[in-house]
Amino acid sequence: MKKPFQITLDQSVLDDLKKRIESTRWPDEIENSKWEHGTNKSYLQELIEYWYRDFDWKKQEDHLNSFAHFKATIDDFEIHFIHQKGKTKNSIPLLLIHGWPDSFIRFLKLAPLLTEADENGFSFDVIIPSIPGHGFSAIPQASGMNAKKIAKLFTKLMTAELGYEKFMAHGGDQGSVVAEQIALYHPDSLFGIHMTDIPYHHILTTPPADLNEAEKKYLAAVTKWQMTEGAYNMIQSTKPQTLAYGLNDSPVGLAAWIVEKFHTWSDAHGNIESCFTKDELLTNITIYWATQTIASSFRLYTEAMNDMMQYMYNPLTKINPFDKTGNKIEVPTAVAEFRTDLLPPKDFANKFFNIQRWTEMPRGGHFAAMEQPSLLANDIREFGRSCSGIDLEKARRMAHVN
User: Fold this and answer.
1) Which of 173, 197, 267, 341 is catalytic?
2) pTM confidence score
3) CA-CA distance, 308 to 146, in Å (whole number)?
4) Which of 183, 246, 291, 328 matches a 20 to 30 Å C-alpha distance to 384?
5) Regarding the domain delimited by 3-398, which CATH topology (the fold level of the hierarchy) does it fall under?
6) Is 200 labeled as catalytic in the residue annotation?
């Protein structure tokens, strides 16, 4: 049974954080390098000074607790989640799955837009879990907590725990990978899936000889991105524990590792605070710091790499390990393409997904729910209303909570 949960950090955690900031040893930096070599020192010092002197965690804590938080044990694993009911009777249930290096806070601007009724009286019940090993969900104590297992946990959360017969799922970043796994292995529980990314493993595990010119161009772009921006992925996929010692011990190191991604992956045009406030950035970082989940958050990358290597270097493997069913997803799928994300041609995506909607957004980046919540909310609503001819009245009855 789900139990109400309140976010409360002990003052000792906040006091220790300040002491560690005080003792920071700052590295040098090449003059005028800006963000070219990683997180810009002058901006990071500005952010850390704000964290130390002005950031009000208790104010942020009150905001977080204005949402309805719960914990539930699924298959002996404790999951933290927000369950925010829609403003209309029999709202459609929508599972929102975050990625890395964000957390459930990715969706705090989006959720109120989706729970409000539109002009047709259409709204969503919004469920936002913390991925295992992130935030306030439990930390896995053994290997094997991969996207497929998380998909099973989240499906059981929605159906067995919350009583929904069917639901929609939306994901970005790692959330897209988990949403895909729900569609592959639990399709009967879904109305549809909505994503802001097509997982890279599809292009990376497709033989180059099977690609057309547009797809080869996309593969080249992904390969270039990996060589210029993908260092974090390689270390988190191969030697995550080594990196974790430094980031779990140094709040400045942790902030630098996370903030760089919010700067580079957003539609910020060099000004990170055109997309995110200091309070938003630091609330997310403080959650990672206080829960000591940076190490465990890396492991989803390690699990994915283990599966990738098994497939790519084992000549006996015939089916992509991310889809041991060997099937194309038949669940209706929508994709919202935001400007800074690297997405494949629609025809390539349609080889793996039943693409019913593909929207090219005029602005926004990787953290779309935080950057452009209205654009994303509208696209999710439109897909929810039209999802491959779903009868919404029937959908509401099927989604009824026990």
Assistant:
1) 173
2) 0.94
3) 12
4) 328
5) Rossmann fold (3.40.50)
6) no
